[in-house]
Amino acid sequence: LPPARQSSAGALTGRGLLLIHGGQSPSDGSVFSDGWALDTTAPQWTWEARPVLAQLGARRDHSAVAVGDDGVLFLFGASLLSPA
């Protein structure tokens, strides 16, 4: 299960996969680089870590947009102290 976060980015693909990345911890202000997926078409919803999304680096206040049936584009945002 993803930890509590704010200022993250997420998008729902055409195939019903919700992908989220990054964000900021509401408790200590640290910026996340992790990614998570939720298959909204599955009978039981379960969050799964997506380690490949960590390659985007830690960022907050960024955007995400679904591209086609399977893709999500994450862009812009900021790291802890500067634009990403």
From TrEMBL:
<dbReference type="InterPro" id="IPR011043">
    <property type="entry name" value="Gal_Oxase/kelch_b-propeller"/>
</dbReference>
<protein>
    <recommendedName>
        <fullName>Galactose oxidase</fullName>
    </recommendedName>
</protein>
<dbReference type="InterPro" id="IPR015915">
    <property type="entry name" value="Kelch-typ_b-propeller"/>
</dbReference>
